[in-house]
């Protein structure tokens, strides 16, 4: 166990910096895409494939995290993820065409590993503060994406796109340096085993499937907005710069939601009211964009951002609350996030194909609203604890609101 307040502070700082690394390598590509395509003579489809490769890795390679945590423990798994991220970003930024996609795949793999590990780390190190620390790390995730999106163009203008994109590696290395004392303090057993038996148990649970559905659908509706919102606003008549500002505004609103919603929801035994409010706000934002995109667009973006920020925070909070120990959290996180990001990778493509087939944005936005409605339905089940379900811990009568009871083999403390 790390000793004293200094050790605890180092743990929290390392955790926060690791969380900041969950999105800059992904979000920083889009602002640089024109420069990358011009430098490497890429078509728009080939340029878009850089992000697609990374998002697909988030979905397909998430199961690497439970395998690594079984052998190394969760703390060392996070350190491995940070180091792979730094290598991937450097390869993506310094190589040619092969390096571009190979580095993107490495970076996507690293983010997948860290995505899956983070809920388990919250459960392992902060079991009595799950809501607060979930809010902290999801806020860092969203803020990291927003900051990366805003600084990449100025950096590229000053130093070129390769240096701008490669700068993300510095953040990853700093986080790895601060996390290393935690990872190597002693042989770790907190990660537990997440073998076939655990997955069979999870997949027999109704809770697992509704959590998977909720995670996947909120990811789909988020990435659809991320990919197409500026284009929708431009087609409605807003100038390109104002359309970009609208996307930035919705990202800022997400930060406000991710900072506050998990703290309150984490204290409640049921997250159904929070899930309902988040889905309704998301749907109101979609309706505003559908019916009146140029009338008070800033209002629709604030509402949409609060709804979507609350949704991702609740999805990750529910994963942490519904499993009884760090190893089970990691396994449930792998199942839910892998399926979620795979669905998210397909969403923007499907949205674009519907737009192409119909010649407008009405039908795609209606499909998005339908996805939000199904998200609400799955969230109503995912947000409701079901004692006796293999994926859900029994909550002792004397437990504090939102507290969870680890299984006998779990590691509830700081390890």
Please explain how this structure is put together.
InterPro entries: MFS (IPR011701), MFS_Cyanate_Porter (IPR052524), MFS_dom (IPR020846), MFS_trans_sf (IPR036259). Pfam families: MFS_1. Residues 392-408 have a biased composition (Low complexity). It comes from Planotetraspora kaengkrachanensis. It is a multi-pass membrane protein. The chain is an all-alpha fold. The longest helix is centred in the C-terminal third of the chain and has 33 residues, at 326-358. It is globular. It contains 17 helices and no strands. It folds into two domains: 1-191, Growth Hormone, Chain: A, CATH 1.20.1250; 202-392, MFS general substrate transporter like domains (Growth Hormone, Chain: A), CATH 1.20.1250. The protein has helices spanning 4-20, 24-27, 33-40, 44-60, 64-72, 74-94, 97-125, 130-159, 161-166, 168-183, 196-203, 206-236, 240-266, 272-291, 297-322, 326-358, 362-382.
What are its keywords?
globular; MFS transporter; MFS_trans_sf; Growth Hormone, Chain: A; 415 residues; MFS; 17 helices; transmembrane; mainly alpha; single chain; MFS_dom; disordered C terminus; 2 domains
Number of strands: 0
Beta percentage is under 5%
Specify the overall morphology.
globular
The CATH C-level class name of the largest domain: Mainly Alpha
**Portion in helices:** over 70%
Low-pLDDT sequence parts:
189-194, 388-415
Major beta sheet, specifics? Answer: none
Number of domains: 2
What is the alpha-carbon Rg in Å? 20 Å
CATH topology of the largest domain: Growth Hormone, Chain: A
Oligomerization category of the chains in this entry:
single chain
CATH architecture of the largest domain: Up-down Bundle
| pLDDT averaged residue by residue | 83
**What's the end-to-end separation, in Å?**
6 Å
What is the SS-derived class?
Answer: mainly alpha
Q: Give the full name of the CATH homologous superfamily of the largest domain.
A: MFS general substrate transporter like domains
Order of helices and strands: HHHHHHHHHHHHHHHHH
Helices, by number, come to: 17
GO molecular function: transmembrane transporter activity
Main location: membrane
Protein name: MFS transporter
Pfam families: MFS_1
């Amino acid at each position: 166990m790390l000793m004293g307040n200094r050790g605890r502070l180092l743990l929290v700082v390392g955790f926060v910096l690791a969380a900041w690394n969950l999105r800059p390598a992904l979000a920083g590509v889009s602002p640089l895409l024109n420069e990358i395509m011009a430098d490497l003579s890429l078509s728009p489809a080939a340029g878009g494939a850089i992000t697609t490769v990374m998002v697909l890795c988030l979905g397909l390679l998430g199961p690497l995290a439970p395998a690594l945590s079984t052998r190394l423990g969760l703390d060392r798994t996070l350190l491995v993820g940070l180091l792979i991220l730094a290598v991937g970003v450097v390869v993506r930024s310094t190589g040619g065409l092969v390096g571009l996609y190979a580095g993107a795949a490495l970076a996507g793999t690293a983010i997948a590993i860290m995505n899956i590990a983070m809920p388990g780390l919250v459960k392992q190190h902060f079991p009595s503060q799950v809501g607060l620390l979930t809010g902290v790390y999801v806020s860092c995730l969203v803020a990291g994406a927003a900051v990366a999106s805003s600084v990449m163009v100025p950096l590229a203008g000053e130093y070129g796109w390769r240096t701008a994109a490669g700068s993300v590696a510095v953040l990853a290395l700093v986080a790895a340096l601060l996390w290393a004392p935690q990872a190597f303090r002693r042989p770790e057993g907190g990660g537990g085993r997440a073998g076939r038996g655990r997955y069979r148990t999870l997949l027999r649970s109704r809770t697992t499937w509704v959590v998977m559905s909720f995670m996947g659908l909120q990811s789909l509706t988020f990435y659809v907005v991320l990919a197409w919102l500026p284009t929708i606003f431009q087609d409605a008549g807003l100038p390109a710069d104002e359309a970009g500002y609208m996307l930035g505004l919705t990202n800022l609103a997400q930060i406000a939601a991710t900072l506050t919603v998990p703290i309150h929801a984490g204290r409640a035994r049921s997250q159904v009211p929070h899930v309902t409010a988040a889905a309704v706000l998301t749907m109101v934002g979609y309706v505003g964009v559908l019916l009146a995109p140029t009338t008070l667009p800033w209002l629709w973006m604030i509402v949409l951002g609060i709804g979507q920020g609350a949704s991702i925070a609740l999805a990750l909070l529910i994963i942490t609350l519904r499993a009884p120990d760090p190893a089970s959290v990691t396994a449930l996180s792998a199942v839910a996030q892998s399926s979620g990001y795979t669905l998210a990778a397909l969403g923007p493509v499907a949205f674009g194909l519907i737009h192409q087939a119909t010649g407008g944005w009405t039908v795609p936005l209606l499909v998005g609203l339908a996805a939000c409605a199904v998200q609400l339905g799955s969230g109503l089940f995912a947000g409701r604890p079901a004692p006796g379900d293999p994926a859900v811990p029994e909550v002792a009568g004397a437990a504090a609101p939102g507290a969870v009871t680890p299984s006998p083999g779990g590691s509830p403390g700081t390890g």
